[in-house]
Amino acid sequence: MKLLTRPRVFIATVFASASLLTAVPAASAQQTGLVNVSVGDVSILNHVGIGVAANVAAQVCGVQVPVAAILAAARAGQGTVCETAQGAPVNVSAA
After folding, report:
1. d(C-alpha 59, C-alpha 89), whole Å
2. Which of 9, 51, 58, 78 has a CB 3.0–4.6 Å from the CB of 93, allowing a cystine?
3. pTM for the structure as a whole
4. What does the mean pLDDT of the chain come to?
């Protein structure tokens, strides 16, 4: 087996390093369709998907909240989706 010479190892290292530098992390990608969820004046979730917001609203309010209702409330700016048993509104706003 023939060993790599120093220049070949150096060039391979440079190319490997360059490929790592050009990779774009997934977290920096722009997200759309994200919402913020609050109960009363307390923000409980920020930058979550519509489905997550619907599940949280269903759990907090004890009813099924359609994803379409969450989406409509978020697009309207800020809207009350449902109310808790204590009467606190569950609000959804676009993130």
Report:
1. 13
2. 78
3. 0.60
4. 74
